[in-house]
């Protein structure tokens, strides 16, 4: 990739490509960091800033998180989708990743109050994941705190630090993700593939629907993981909810990965559920008075 020339008078500071051609290196002097801490995780903190006047979120990774830093930026270079957080560039010398600045995390309690919001979030995540899987990428940490609002009514999947390119030859094994969202095959450290994201998505659907963040409140994380691994424990089904949504959710958390739908099928079904609930809502609304134009 050739170095980019920046037009004279342009606000955008120069971004040059890395010698491996994988990402755009940003000069840290071009970033104006604020004191606003947007979030903090195991290996990083995310701070608000401006890059050539553009609001950005800078993920500053600690040295212990160098693997996550490389994974996240390598994955995101391969992904361009309206429902996936946009990577703008990296500062390799400081282990910074510069993202478009998004709004807050998805608040499941708020989401659960309106089924149309539930289906909007579920739709956006399904579209993002159908795309990511089609590009050979699995996320491995799908959960509400990794979904961010864009301020325009859309939701984006972020935090690709645990992501991997799907290895079809030697399917991956080992611990990853967050306990309650973890698929049985991941808990058992068996070989797993992209369907582990579908399992996590099923648990995500449950949290969106119920507004609860903990599916198994009476169990310790170890007991819950044991129950899920033995296929004797799943979140309690809420009553009086859309039966198609419930059926899809249960199929996503099936114990057998091959019995879970793929994201292409999920996206089609959830888009249909979303469209139907929007139509029903419209029908229930009182008809508008006829306007001057009839
Ligand atoms: N692009 C962004 N815009 C706004 N806030 C963000 C952005 N990226 C991350 N954050 C905030 O920082 C938190 C941690 O970021 P995340 O990428 O999930 O890191 P970690 O791997 O530490 O969980 C997020 O939950 C969110 O609150
Ligand atoms: Mg996170």
TrEMBL record:
The UniProt entry, under InterPro entries, shows: Kinase-like_dom_sf, Prot_kinase_dom, Protein_kinase_ATP_BS, Ser-Thr/Tyr_kinase_cat_dom, Ser/Thr_Kinases-Pseudokinases
**Per the record's keyword annotation, is ATP-binding included, yes or no?**
yes
Q: Which CDD domains does the UniProt record give?
A: STKc_MAP3K-like
Does the record bear Cell inner membrane in its keywords? no
Gene3D superfamilies linked to this entry: Phosphorylase Kinase, domain 1, Transferase(Phosphotransferase) domain 1
Q: Which SUPFAM superfamilies match?
A: Protein kinase-like (PK-like)
- Give every Protein kinase domain span: 32-273
Q: Which GO terms describe its molecular function?
A: ATP binding; protein serine/threonine kinase activity
SMART domains the UniProt entry points to: S_TKc (SM00220)
Record protein name field: Protein kinase domain-containing protein
């Amino acid at each position: 990739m050739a170095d980019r020339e920046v037009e004279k008078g342009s606000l955008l500071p120069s971004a040059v490509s890395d010698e491996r051609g994988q990402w755009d290196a940003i000069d840290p002097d071009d970033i104006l960091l604020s004191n606003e801490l947007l979030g903090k995780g195991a290996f990083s903190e995310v701070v608000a800033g401006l890059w050539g006047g553009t609001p950005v979120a800078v993920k500053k990774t600690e040295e212990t998180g160098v693997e996550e830093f490389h994974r996240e930026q390598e994955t995101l270079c391969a992904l361009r989708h309206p429902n996936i957080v946009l990577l703008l560039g990296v500062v390799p010398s400081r282990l910074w990743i510069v993202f478009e600045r998004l709004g807050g995390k998805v608040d499941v309690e708020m989401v659960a109050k309106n089924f149309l919001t539930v289906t909007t979030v579920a739709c956006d995540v399904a579209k993002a994941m159908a795309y990511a899987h089609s590009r050979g990428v699995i996320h491995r940490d799908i959960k509400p705190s990794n979904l961010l609002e864009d301020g325009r009514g859309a939701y984006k999947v972020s935090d690709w630090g645990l992501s991997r390119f799907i290895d079809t030859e030697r399917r991956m094994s080992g611990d990853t993700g967050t306990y309650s969202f973890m698929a049985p095959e991941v808990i058992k450290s068996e070989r797993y593939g992209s369907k582990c994201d579908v399992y996590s998505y099923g648990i995500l659907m449950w949290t969106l629907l119920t507004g609860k963040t903990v599916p198994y409140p009476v169990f310790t994380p170890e007991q819950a993981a044991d129950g899920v691994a033995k296929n004797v424990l799943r979140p309690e089904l809420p009553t009086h909810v859309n039966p198609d949504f419930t059926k899809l959710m249960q199929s996503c958390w099936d114990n057998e990965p091959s019995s879970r739908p793929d994201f292409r099928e999920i996206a089609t079904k959830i888009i249909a559920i979303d469209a139907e609930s929007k139509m029903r809502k419209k029908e229930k609304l009182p008809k508008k008075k006829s306007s001057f134009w009839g």
